[in-house]
Design goal:
Blueprint lengths: L1 E3 L4 E3 L6 E4 L3 E6 L2 E6 L4 E2 L2 E2 L7 H15 L7 E2 L3 H4 L12 E4 L3 E2 L2 E8 L2 H10 L1 E2 L2 E2 L9 E7 L2 E2 L11 H12 L3 H23 L2 E12 L5 E4 L8 E5 L15 H9 L13 H19 L6
Antiparallel strand pairs: 1-2, 3-4, 4-5, 5-9, 6-7, 8-9, 10-16, 11-14, 11-15, 11-16, 12-13, 16-17, 16-18
Helix pairs in contact: 1-7, 4-5
């Protein structure tokens, strides 16, 4: 393991063969499947920052496990964590708490984004065209406006560079090209909207507005559509404070929008390399992620 800064890990290096490293996760071949380990790296605007965010990888993993369990009627990539991992002796790395043992799956190359509120790139697109991903919305909406119904707004899944919002027709073509099955797109869209609606209702009871979120899907060895990667975390979602929510202004959030807002203020061009983050921004980001975990799960973050 490398990059340990005050028990924050920029990269996780284990003795197993590396499958691939993503923006946040380092994935290893292990016992015929994949050991997915969440580092403490942070990306914003699809660029990875040079400093890790302490405890972030543990929050992402533990929140994903919470939601996968809550929505277990939808098939996902989780397998039981092997004994070798669950008994891993390292009090700093805390491998069992930042790892998921998962099925190998063929990834579908779109981001399955559901929006219940207008924000971020969706709001910018709406201001320019009155549409989001080709979906025409009513006039007069503001930043943070609640939509009459959640909308499915897919994006490209970029290996490098920025994800780009696309139309449903474009997304259907990508999924068909990936899978050869015209029904897969409609299945993953249906699942995404169903989970968003249920999670939004649950989060409201906990004092959080789930403004939008993204899901990732794959096809397993049995040809089944499954949820992969993470689900409903502060990295993949916008979590707003229900008490302070107000249309037309920036919302108090429990996610990486806090970092996005900071780098927007310093006029970063959103191209590599990402700027160094002040200690205060790093500490507050950890605090926000942990607060999201505790509010939504009802459990104390004890790692």
């Amino acid at each position: 393991m490398t990059g340990n800064v005050s028990n924050a890990y920029y990269r996780i290096e284990l003795e197993y063969p590396l499958f691939k490293s993503g923006k946040v996760r380092d994935n290893y071949f292990f016992k015929g499947n994949i050991l997915m380990v969440a580092s403490d790296r942070l990306s914003a605007f699809d660029v990875v920052f040079p400093q890790p965010i302490p405890k972030k990888g543990i929050v992402l993993t533990q929140m994903s496990l919470f939601w996968f369990n809550k929505f277990k009627k939808y098939k996902n990539h989780l397998l039981k964590l092997p004994k070798e991992v669950s008994e891993y002796k390292n009090s700093d790395l805390q491998l069992p708490y930042r790892s998921m043992y998962v099925k190998k799956a063929f990834p579908i190359m779109i981001e399955a984004v559901v929006r219940g509120y207008l924000a971020g790139s969706g709001y910018k697109e709406y201001k320019q065209s009155g549409k989001v991903c080709g979906i025409e919305l009513e006039p007069g909406l503001e930043n943070g406006s609640k939509l009459k119904e959640p909308i499915f707004t897919p994006a490209t899944k970029a290996i490098v560079g920025h994800d780009i919002n696309i139309t449903e027709k474009e997304a259907e073509e990508i999924v068909y090209h990936n899978t050869g099955d015209k029904e897969i797109y409609h299945k993953l869209k249906k699942i995404s909207i169903e989970i968003y609606k249920s999670a939004h209702e649950y989060a409201l009871e906990k004092g959080i507005i789930l403004a939008d979120t993204k899901f990732e899907f794959g096809i397993d060895s049995d040809g089944e559509l499954i949820l992969i990667d993470e689900i409903l975390t502060p990295d993949s979602s916008r979590f707003w404070d229900k008490q302070t929510y107000s249309v037309g202004k920036e919302q108090k959030s429990f996610d990486k929008q806090y970092v996005r807002d900071y780098v927007e203020k310093i006029n970063w061009n959103k191209q590599p390399p990402a700027p160094n983050l002040p200690d205060e921004i790093i500490a507050n980001t950890t605090k926000k992620y942990i607060e999201a975990y505790e509010k939504l799960t009802g459990k104390k973050f004890e790692w």
